[in-house]
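Field: COMPLEX_INPUT
Field: COMPONENT_COUNT = two
Field: RESIDUE_TOTAL = 1316
Field: MODE = joint
Values follow.
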Amino acid sequence: MSNSENKYWRGIEELEANPATLENISNEFSDKLPMEEILGDTEELSSNRRDFLKFFGFSVSAVALAACNKTPVKYAMPYINKPEEVTPGHALYYATTCGVYNEGFPVMAKVREGRPIKLDGNPESPLSQGAVNAAGQASILSLYDTNRIPHPIVDGSEVEDWAEVDKKVDGILKGASGDVYIVSRTVTSPVLQASIQKFMDTHNAKHVIYDPISYSGIRGANKESFGADVIPSYNFDKADVIVSFGADFLGTWISPTRFTADYSKNRVPTPENPDMSKHYQIESLLSLTGTNADYRYSIPASKQGKYLVSLYNMLSGAGGDLELPGNALKQIASELLAAKGKALVVSGSNDKSEQVIVNAINDLLGSYGSTINFSASMNISHFDEAAFDSFVNNAGKAGAIVLLDANPVYSYHNGAKLAEAMKNVPVITTAMVVDESSNGAVVHAPNNHTLESWDVYQPMNGHYVTSQPVISKVFNTRSAAESLRTWAGEKVAMGEDQASHQWVADYLTNDLGADANKAFHDGFVEKSTERVSSSFAGSISAASSSIASSYTESAGFDLALYQKVGVLDGSSALNPWCHELPDPVTKVTYDNYVSISRHDAETNGWEQGDIVKVSGNGAEIDALPLLIQPGQARGVVGIALGYGRSVQTNADNDLVDLGKNAYTFVQSSSSGTSYLAQNVTIEKVDSGYEFAQTQTHHMIEGRDYLREATIDEYKKDNAVRNEHKFETVSLWSDYDYSKGHHWAMAIDMNACTGCGSCVVSCHIENNVPVVGRKEVRRRRDMHWLRIDRYYSFQTDADETASVRVGPSNVDQEFKKGEWSTMENELAGLDKNSASGDEDYGHYDNVKVVHQPVMCQHCDHAPCETVCPVLATTHSSEGLNQMTYNRCIGTKYCGNNCPYKVRRFNWFRYNKNSKFDYHFNNELGRMVLNPDVTVRSRGVMEKCSFCVQNIQMAKLNAKIENRKLEDGDAQTACAKACPSNAIVFGDRNDPNSRIAKMYKNDRSYKMLEEVGTDPSVLYLTKIRNRKEEVQHS
Amino acid sequence: MSGSFYSNSTFVAIVILAIVLLLIAALMVYVLRHITSILKDKSGAEVEPGFFERNIKPKMDSWNPTIVTLLVIGLLVVVGAGYGSAYMATEIGVQQGYSPDQPINFPHTKHAGAMGIDCQYCHTTAGKSKHASIPSANTCMNCHKGAQLRDNYGGKVSPELMKLYESVGFDPETSTYDPDAETYPLKWVRIHNLPDLAYFNHSQHVTVGNVECQTCHGPIEEMEKVEQFSTLQMGWCVNCHRQRGIDVKNNKYYEDVHKEMKANKEHYVTVAQNGGLECSKCHY
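Field: COMPLEX_OUTPUT
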């Protein structure tokens, strides 16, 4: 039963009713017992009574022997001197930073008995607004990474004493025959900057900045247009019309956590304020941002600049030569002009000329001072390509190179050349792991982890973020600032980073005039900044002619290089959480792939899973699997950066040798670094690769799980799509939940961007194991919370018929509405292939919905009635309880769950060397949450609504002799959500946010008609689109 | 609303009642038959041999008494052993009475008993956290910096106390700490161990529930050497949760529960009635 005519599908395999997929849908735990694998060749296998008796006897005696095991003696070791603030069993929260994206992202670290176990956003800082994105959440594991260098290394041998390191460095620097270079990522810490300066002064050294992802295009353009070499702040909350040309600002662009928080503020219509921003995305690959756009158009990446010029010309009244289908660009231009002062145009390109045009457009629209802020500029990158290129050319003649956490050999497009040059130069590195650049270093002087350091950062102009150690040093490391000053001849107090602390405190007190203790407590200091005037002085004609000249019509593909939400620029490549997180768009875990449009794949006769060779521009990737991605522009292939790392590792898991390094395709020219390669050839070399892709896992079969409407429909009727109320008859006598607490959750599908932050947060909070690629392929991923990503074809004939390149008879098929089974229904959607038309135009652009799904805590839970051992029961507070110690693993509950949210624990992931992730080493286990059981194999597990937090909140209220307040009990996902899409609370508390959600007309329950009475609400997705979604 | 089961005792009572009723029924049948046969006998009619006389008695006569006896004994052994092992299975891992040697022979009799020191003076976090925690050495040193227990050892420091001093690098002769001494934590043996699957929080019981330490840990103040007093089995937890009431009057958290009770003219609500037997109160 469906109350809207949108037909959703998760993947082409579902759409085309691939038999294997269909079988998997109906068999959640279909894997057969691997008897052949265990017993070997079954041909020769014969068992008889004697064998049976042997096995029987063996197992009985084994069990008997195992039972004789004595209870192990456990010890309790108290502190010698208990720190005053530490209460064993209690979590402490410290404001500090995590080092993902911009150095110095403000977070609150949850610390148990001296071990940080979770990072949440700092709620008071505008940069985080209480949330951290997926990679930031996961970054805590890098602290407990077994690949970290435990001691300094001098000449290949580990040393304990830092004096030896300093002696060696001194010798190197004194004997340096050429220039001494410091290579670092953009330094946002004034304390580190001062140390670098000191080192430079002493050794007459040069400082080169290297960032793997360059934003020099924006900076260069702003310098040209406004005389300010900065990356401005973009205020997506203040924009009513947002046009993004390939900028994945919700995923990876500049400051995604903050942008997501800001963006969603203006995306949630309410009865009082039924307006929301309108978001156009014009891009080549389907990005996370693109999936959230109201209107999305796919264009070839190489033509993006020309479209921008066209838009500028339309805005300035001259008429552009390029147009999107359906005269959409003209429409965009008129809407932008109408929203003057509340409009924002951004581009993800790193081409200076393109950014000049963007600046010109924004200047025309009066965005400066409203949606774009120059005074709060972002310090995330000061990378100067020209300076770095000249360093690379001279590196061979350098006297010594000091690498400060920079890894250019991996991510520089000509890393091989740099590596060759560095071979003959003594290299001193502060890297925490032996990476590509520090591989041959003479001295490894490992830096502290961010969570072990005192520091202050300025990620944004006027915003100083403080960092304090939340754990005593895990290894024998020393902060880079201390190392540099020691090497500069300064006498630095050794030991627990007293020196760093002093420098940071001094800086806070003397330079910022702040109270250092308060700054460390708050986690940040705000300083008023000077207003930067902005009058546009760029040359539009020069920019547009540069754009025109850089574009050449070519027969080959455009190769668009992009970052993934989890792996980023490669810095999270060693983090299993980042790989296990399905990509928000493709839902692929672990794998690195070449994405391609359906049209291009079909015309070339390629299939999903074909292995292809990608070559062009002097670079080549010999083999990567091909992934057909709906919504991707024709003539474009995409490869994610950050794979193909070769870090020295002692782990034997799926993160080793993962994917290929696509940085080799990065183009460097006088106008900057370009993440687009033109005229690339693709050649099929093999086939049959199986992706570890979760898109068709845990399918909810063809039922009505999603509701969406347009803004106009919403304005007419706030309860649009939710008009029909189901009347259900209950088999059970109803329990009265009106007393005490009744926990419930609401997920606003308008605010949710699908970023995956909640997934990782849940993974960390609840000790969910990492299962690895092979297990994901077998549909055994363990995430308690998944985000279902649904595609749907554009159904509005008037608007999209022309947008769509191919024929459009889908709508007609829709209207018939005669299909009885899901397969037929979806096969009908895929009309083109059925009729033999090979154009696949409707795949060029798709609409996307993200829907986070976790245990719905049904008050009439189907799982509870089928459990033979009462391992899953219901609590008086409305929680669906899972009792692992009672579970015998029949999986009946999972089979009876219409939401497919129960996960079966197939292995003892914490004691199985086949899963060589953090669960299997002493160091990695330090990140485990001590309040949550580490489940053993053979049991079911699922979302508990973070019952440990509920219980803790209740206990705290009891101890403090007060009532429980809204917000006391929070789930990990609600806390992590940057867009506040997830609301959790007690619906019996009339003042709680969740109680208000129950009154919200947009709220509905998933599969309400089944009568499960879930405790999770979803709020109808409202799109700021014109067309009416057809009703049946 | 976690499944409302018959409690153990109810179940046993029902079984016993059923057996008694069956016995009475059998007795009645027997009496009835006996009376009819007597009546028939009196009336002079020939007594027809009953089912038992006809079918079973002849066979029983041919049974070997040894085999029958062995069979009966065997049956008893099987039933007994089954019941015994089932009982023992529930006892696996139960360490009631566990009293291991500790690194220091710490006498609770002196501290908690003779001197009457409050438990939470040393176990400071029992009222605040899930762990009661073993006191850190600096807590011991609060008193033992001065109290050097030389009386019974001929003017020398007690050898047991010396172990503490060594661990913290304290020189009792000069009453000073040696800053260069290598300090180390004492390795106490944990007596009360709960499995990982059970979550227990001391503060919930000590501060909110006002449970005396002795309720679970027994007469600690009389223990020269501490031993595990309770079974720490789930049934033991549950029993207490069924019996103990909640102090709803003096805690604002329970305001609504209190109002409800007053409305219903109830004056006692147990932990169980307030959801204290639900699985996820302790298992997550």
